[in-house]
C-alpha cells in the first residue's frame, strides 16, 4: 500500500511543495475537491427535490482527503519504453497475467448476516460505522477514477501497463461497489454518479514501476524521503484511528494493537522496494506514537474549549512543539536498511 501511494497520493491544498529525489521529480500529485453525498433511500425519494433534501456532504480535511490525481503527461513519459530503458516489461507482463486471472473475483460475498448485523447496530456505533463505510467507499472510488484515466491515456504509450491500470480500476470499482452495498444495509448509499462493476497485486505493480526508476531508490536522499513518507503515513493513520476508538472497540478490536499490526505488515511489505524504512517493531516507536496520541488529544481539547481564539493559539504552541519533537525523534530513530527483493522471496500472508 505504501509503495502504491508513494506515486499516487494527495498533496494538501495547504502546500504546493513537490518533494524531489535525486535529480528527478516524483510524478506530481495534486489534491482536488469533488463533492460527494450520502442519500437516504426511500420509496418516495424518486423526485430530485426529495433526493437533494436527503443528501449530506462528506466532510474533507487535511488528514482525510477524498480524491487523487497525478501528472498524466509525466506518467506517459515514465511508462514510455523508448524513454525509460529501465522498464522490465517481462515483469509487467507477468503481473498482467495475474491481474487477468482475477483471483478475488468471488471474494466479495454479501449474505444475510450483513443485514442482520446492520439492524442490530445502534448509535453512536452505528453512525461511526457508517462514516467508516463512507470514507472507505469514496477512497476506493477515487482509485477507480484515477486508474481508469491512466489506463485510457497509456493505451498508445504502453498497452501492457495501460491494461494493468484498467484492471486495477476494475478492482477498485468492485471494492467501492461492495462497500456501497454495505451502506444500503443502513438505508444509505453514496451518490457516486456512475460506477462500473482487487487489490490483487497493486503493490507489486507499483514496486515494479519504482524499480524502473532507480534514481528514486539508490541514494541517501531517497532513503530520507522513503523514511519520511512511511512515517507520515503511519503517524497519520495512528492519530486518526485513535480518534475513532469507539468504532474499533465496537467491532471487538483494540485500536492500537490493530493499527500496530497493520503498520508492521505494511512496513515489511514496503521494505521490499524502499531503500530504508522506520524500525516500527522497535518498542520505542510505539511509545512515541502513543505519546503523539496524548498530545493530539490535548490539542483537540484546546480546540473544543470555550477559550477565546488568542488563548487557544497560545495553548497550542507548546503542544504543537511537543508533537513535532516526537515526530522528529521517531524519524531520527535508526532505520532498517532495506531495498528491492524478488516478489517470490517475500509473500505477505493476508488474512481476511
TrEMBL record:
GO terms for biological process: chlorophyll biosynthetic process; photosynthesis. It catalyses: Mg-protoporphyrin IX 13-monomethyl ester + 3 NADPH + 3 O2 + 2 H(+) = 3,8-divinyl protochlorophyllide a + 3 NADP(+) + 5 H2O. Keywords: Chlorophyll biosynthesis, Iron, Metal-binding, NADP, Oxidoreductase, Photosynthesis. It comes from Fraxinus pennsylvanica. SUPFAM superfamilies: Ferritin-like. Residues 131-196 form the Rubrerythrin diiron-binding domain. This is magnesium-protoporphyrin IX monomethyl ester (oxidative) cyclase. Its EC number is 1.14.13.81. The lineage of its organism: Eukaryota, Viridiplantae, Streptophyta, Embryophyta, Tracheophyta. GO terms for cellular component: chloroplast thylakoid membrane. The keyword Phosphoprotein does not apply. Pfam families: Rubrerythrin (PF02915). Pathway: Porphyrin-containing compound metabolism; chlorophyll biosynthesis. GO terms for molecular function: magnesium-protoporphyrin IX monomethyl ester (oxidative) cyclase activity; metal ion binding. Its cofactor is Fe cation. The keyword Metal-binding applies.
